[in-house]
Amino acid sequence: MNESIVRVEHLSHRYSVQWAIRDINLEIKKKGVFGLLGSNGAGKSTTMNIMCGVLNQTEGEVFINGISLRENPVEAKKYIGFLPQKPPLYSDFTVDEYLVYCAQLRRMEPKSIRAAVDFAKEKCGIMHFSKRLISNLSGGYQQRVGIAQAIVHNPLFVVLDEPTNGLDPNQIVEIRNLIKEIAVDRAVMLSTHILSEVQATCDEIKMIEHGTVVFSGTIRDFNNYMAPSTFVAIFENPPIVEEFEKIEGILKVEKLTTTRFRFHFDGNDHFMTRRFTEMGVEKGWRPSEIILERDSLDTVFAQLSGKGIKID
Ligand SMILES: Nc1ncnc2c1ncn2[C@@H]1O[C@H](COP(=O)(O)OP(=O)(O)OP(=O)(O)O)[C@@H](O)[C@H]1O
């Protein structure tokens, strides 16, 4: 049985002379959230625009539900819902007028449009704004309307390009929850340059830098890869540094102040911090704080770009 809804093979694209993406391969399962992570200019929008059939690739193939987007674009696009980075909203339409129009553009049967629009509004929590002009909605609700147009024809595959960009923290949480909900019975692909976004929302990720894939795997693989390797601890009565260095798993100790130390370690972070707490109490070092340090996204990008790690 074919488990994937999308297959991308050796996708490359060149704007005039510059390659924007090179040899991207990916497969997306029929349900769940798939994240495309990358810094600005990494090639996320280019990849998504090609996958949605709004940009013709220079090389490579995209198959949606087994159908080649290049050979049979009209048929393949029936399975796709797309919210581009700049939502294509008509601000002087009401929510209902706009969604009916989008359903017509999708060539839906006229008699099924009313129910489809109601379903999309219901899913996106915008039922009560049916008669509201889009220009009079907040940014978060405008984004919901953008997502509603992407699912109005009940596609199997929904693509959202930076869906939480420009929203406030509450709206971000709401949109993330909505994304997870619509991914219960279809595949959703989202792009972001925010690491916490993929960690909060995605089941699987691909990370691209300078147009090539530098990481591929589940969010668990990614979190394991990103596992902290240092922590800072404060002891009111610390021993000499050499004493710390004798502890199994400790690679290096930096003395930051008389009571504050940074420890570089190898192994499981929970195990290591628990060991320090227990030893601190047992030996009378009087530990008062232990803080795990995580790499910044910049560091992770740099590491991954350099290592070209691939977990498939
Ligand atoms: N129409 C275009 N013409 C020429 N170069 C382009 C065009 N669109 C994008 N590029 C270039 O292609 C590269 C990838 O851009 P793309 O927009 O796909 O990246 P992105 O990861 O989506 O970034 P962002 O998050 O900033 O949108 C960048 O170097 C960008 O400058």
TrEMBL record:
<keyword id="KW-0813">Transport</keyword>
<feature type="domain" description="ABC transporter">
    <location>
        <begin position="6"/>
        <end position="235"/>
    </location>
</feature>
<dbReference type="InterPro" id="IPR050763">
    <property type="entry name" value="ABC_transporter_ATP-binding"/>
</dbReference>
<dbReference type="InterPro" id="IPR027417">
    <property type="entry name" value="P-loop_NTPase"/>
</dbReference>
<dbReference type="InterPro" id="IPR003439">
    <property type="entry name" value="ABC_transporter-like_ATP-bd"/>
</dbReference>
<dbReference type="GO" id="GO:0005524">
    <property type="term" value="F:ATP binding"/>
</dbReference>
<protein>
    <submittedName>
        <fullName>ABC-2 type transport system ATP-binding protein</fullName>
    </submittedName>
</protein>
<keyword id="KW-0547">Nucleotide-binding</keyword>
<dbReference type="Pfam" id="PF00005">
    <property type="entry name" value="ABC_tran"/>
</dbReference>
<keyword id="KW-0536">Nodulation</keyword>
<dbReference type="GO" id="GO:0016887">
    <property type="term" value="F:ATP hydrolysis activity"/>
</dbReference>
<dbReference type="InterPro" id="IPR003593">
    <property type="entry name" value="AAA+_ATPase"/>
</dbReference>
<keyword id="KW-0067">ATP-binding</keyword>
<comment type="similarity">
    <text>Belongs to the ABC transporter superfamily.</text>
</comment>
